[in-house]
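User: Can you recover a sequence for this backbone? Please restate the input before giving your answer.

Assistant: Of course. Working from this structure:
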């Protein structure tokens, strides 16, 4: 981890800890008091707190924090497959594996580290992985916490195979909300989406925002790079910016499915919504030696009930 000491802000902090299962975690802190916790289990962000110590990500009270079970909450990395549209396990294997700290990653632009606390992680395939998905790759993840509390995740997939391979990818982001029935998602209006509740039939979004009255499981296609998730009760808006991730998955299991999941509380669907930057409809194909980059930036702004003001606020950031 010493490679980045020179560019960290002197007031920022990076701390290595272990959870109750003995799995390594990294805690990033900002000078103002925001924090991010990253687990080596899945390379997964499991906590993102603002300066007031409020948790911004949802994690189920029944989540299982022991490999190989994926953790229900935070930001799991779905790779090399999203969902069950392939031969692999649900959402691929990256979220179930133990990652390592990458002490000497290939360089990224200096703006991705300057004045920020960050950690670089690395996943390479095991022999078991290659049996199920016969491709050699390097999956790198940089998690950055800016001085103002903004969270950035930058993933890079490199093909070190002798032949091309294709993959899908998603940051399966569980946002913490006060009441999902009061949440609006803006930026997806008029887009086509694939509805996973109707065998991925294609529809067009008719509403001026996505709202929730029942189970939702959709893949919005060719989406803009800025999405806003408005939580009216808390008067705050999550602003999601993304690069290299053309699709957006919106998911809430609602009541029936929540009761069917062993690692999810019966009523917890009310306090969460997943809004995932993703590449699903048109998988990425990498030739030998090629690299793909996908980036997700999350920030939180104060919001009011005035949509015109919100539009200005989220687009002007």
């Amino acid at each position: 981890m010493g490679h980045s000491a020179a560019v960290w802000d002197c007031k920022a902090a990076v701390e290595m800890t272990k959870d109750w299962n003995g799995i390594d975690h990294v805690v990033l802190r900002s000078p103002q008091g925001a924090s991010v916790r990253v687990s080596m289990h899945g390379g997964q962000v499991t906590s993102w707190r603002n300066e007031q110590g409020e948790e911004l990500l949802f994690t189920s009270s029944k989540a299982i924090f022991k490999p190989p079970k994926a953790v229900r909450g935070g930001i799991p990395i779905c790779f090399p497959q999203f969902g069950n549209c392939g031969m692999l396990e649900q959402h691929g294997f990256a979220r179930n594996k133990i990652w390592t700290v990458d002490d000497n990653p290939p360089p990224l632009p200096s703006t991705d580290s300057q004045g920020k606390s960050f950690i670089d992680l690395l996943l390479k395939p095991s022999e078991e992985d290659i049996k199920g998905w016969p491709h050699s790759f390097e999956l790198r993840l940089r998690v950055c916490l800016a001085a103002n509390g903004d969270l950035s995740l930058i993933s890079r997939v490199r093909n070190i195979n002798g032949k091309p391979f294709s993959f899908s990818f998603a940051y399966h982001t569980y946002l913490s909300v006060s009441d999902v029935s009061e949440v609006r998602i803006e930026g997806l209006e008029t887009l086509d989406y694939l509805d996973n509740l109707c065998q991925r039939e294609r529809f067009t979004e008719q509403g001026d925002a996505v709202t929730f009255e029942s189970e939702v499981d959709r893949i919005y296609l060719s989406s803009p790079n800025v999405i806003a998730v408005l939580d009216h009760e808390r008067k705050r808006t999550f602003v999601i910016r993304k690069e290299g991730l053309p699709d957006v998955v919106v998911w809430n299991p609602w009541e029936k499915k929540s009761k069917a999941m062993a690692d999810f509380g019966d009523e917890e669907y009310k306090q969460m919504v997943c809004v995932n930057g993703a590449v699903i409809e048109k998988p990425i194909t990498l030739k030998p030696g090629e690299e793909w980059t996908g980036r997700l930036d999350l920030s939180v702004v104060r919001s009011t009930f005035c949509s015109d003001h919100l539009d200005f606020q989220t687009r002007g950031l």
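That completes the design. Residues 187 and 227 are 5 Å apart (CA to CA).
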